Amino acid sequence: MANMKIVESMPILILCLSALSLTIQARVVPLLQNHERPSSKNVFDTSKYGILQLNNGLASTPQMGWNSWNFFACDINEAVIKETADALVTTGLADLGYVFVNIDDCWSAQKRNSKGQLVPDPKTFPSGIKALADYVHEKGLKLGIYSDAGAFTCEVRPGSIYHENDDAELFASWGVDYLKYDNCYNLGIKPKERYPPMRDALNATGRTIFYSLCEWGVDDPALWAGKIGNSWRTTEDINDSWASMTTIADLNDKWAAYAGPGGWNDPDMLEVGNGGMTYQEYQAHFSIWALMKAPLLVGCDVRNMTAETFEILSNKEVIAVNQDPLGVQGRKVYVSGTDDCLQVWAGPLTGHRLAVVLWNRCSKAATITAAWGALGLESSISVSVRDLWKHQDIVGEAVASFSARVDAHGCEMYIFTPKTVSRSDV
C-alpha cells in the first residue's frame, strides 16, 4: 500500500501505515520507530498518508466473526447458519466483536436461473439469502456470502467472473455485508485482472460490503490488493494441524509491512476448537493470529464449543491486541534454537505499548528471552509487563530483556508498557 496517491474525488478512508518504516532486516526487526509521536491519533493524519482505492470505509481493524468452511465444508443449510448466529449471541462472542456470520461455498444451486442470476440451493436454503440476512441482522450481526473470481466455485457452483455487476447487485439486494471471493476455475486469467471488477461492482451498489480476496497468495496480493480489497489471502488453505498453522504463520509474516487499517493480510481462518491440535497449540495459533492482525474468523462449530475453546476465543486482552487501532501487524523479530524453533514475535500498539509473544515451536519446554534490541527498545528502558493469558501483571519491571519458560508448542503473550518513551536508533 506504499506510495499510493490521494484520490480527491473519494471520501477520506482508512490510512496506510507504510510511513511506519517497519523494514525487515535479517533476523532482527526494529519495531518501535514512532515512539516520539505524542499520540496515536497522529498516525492516521490524513495530510501524510494515502487512502485506499476501495471506497467502502470498512476494515479499520481486522474482521471478526465466523465462517462455515473449516468445520462444515459443504454440509451447510439455513438452520446451521441461524443456530450459529444464535450461538454467537448467547455465548457472548458477538459482544466481543465476532459479528460476521459468513456462509462459504455450496450455498448456491448448481446452475444460474433463466435470468442468469445466482440462486440459493432450494434444498438447503429454501427461505433464500435475504430472509437469512434479515434474521442475522435482527441479532445485531452481519451476513457474509461466498463466490469465486472464476467460471465455477471450488465446489463447482456458478462463479462470478463476467457476472460481477449482476451478482454484486444481487448480494446488495439481499442485504449481504461481506463477500469472500475465491480463486478456482480462474480461466488462467491473472488475479490482478479478475479481482478489480468485483470491487467496482460492489462499490457501484451503494451498499458497504466487506471485500475479502481469496487468491491463496499465488500472485503476492500484498503488493497490489490494498487497492482492491479489505483483506487478501497470503497463503494456501489452512488445515487443522500444527504443521499447517506454523507454516502459514511464517508465510504471512513475510508481508507484515503491507497490512494496515483498511486492508489486512489474511493467513486464513481459525482452526481453534476443531480437534486437530492441542490446547497449547490452539492458544499459540490464536495468539499469533491476533498479533499478526489477521482476521479472527472462527472456524469451529460454535454451537458445541468446549470450555477450553471458548476460553481461547473469548480472551478479551488478546482480542484487544488484534483490534488495536494503531493497526500495525506484529511479526517475527528474533529466533534461536534448533531450526529457529525458539521465537520472539512482537508488534507496536497504541499508547507506546508493545505486544510480545514468546513462541516455543520446539519439542521440549524452554526459556525464551526477548532482548530489547530485537524489540527496537533502548537497553535502558524499563517496562511493566502484563500477562495476557494469566490476566495478571508481572511483579516488578523488566530492563534490557525479559525471559519466560514456555511449554513445548506453547506460547506466552504479554504487553510491555515502557516507563520512558523512546526509540532505538537501529
Describe this structure in words.
The protein is of the alpha/beta class. It has two domains: 260 residues, TIM Barrel, CATH 3.20.20.70; 88 residues, Sandwich (Immunoglobulin-like), CATH 2.60.40. The strands form three sheets. Strands 7-6-5-4-3-2-1-8 form an eight-stranded parallel beta sheet. Strand 13 and strand 14 form a beta hairpin. Helix 4 packs across helix 6, helix 7 packs parallel to helix 8 and helix 8 packs parallel to helix 9. The longest helix has 13 residues. It starts with 63 loop residues before the first strand and ends in an 8-residue tail after the last strand.
Shape: elongated
CATH fold naming of the largest domain: TIM Barrel
CATH class of the largest domain: Alpha Beta
**Count of DSSP strands:** 17
Tally of individual helices: 11
CATH 4th-level superfamily of the largest domain: Aldolase class I
Could you name the ranges where pLDDT drops below 50 across 5 or more consecutive residues? 1-53, 422-426
- Spatial order of strands in the largest sheet: 7-6-5-4-3-2-1-8
Question: Which sheet architecture does the biggest sheet show?
Answer: 8 strands, parallel
- Element-level helix/strand string: EHHEHEHEHHEEHEHEHHEEEEHEEEEE
Family: Belongs to the glycosyl hydrolase 27 family.
Signal peptide: 1-26
EC number: 3.2.1.22
Protein name: Alpha-galactosidase
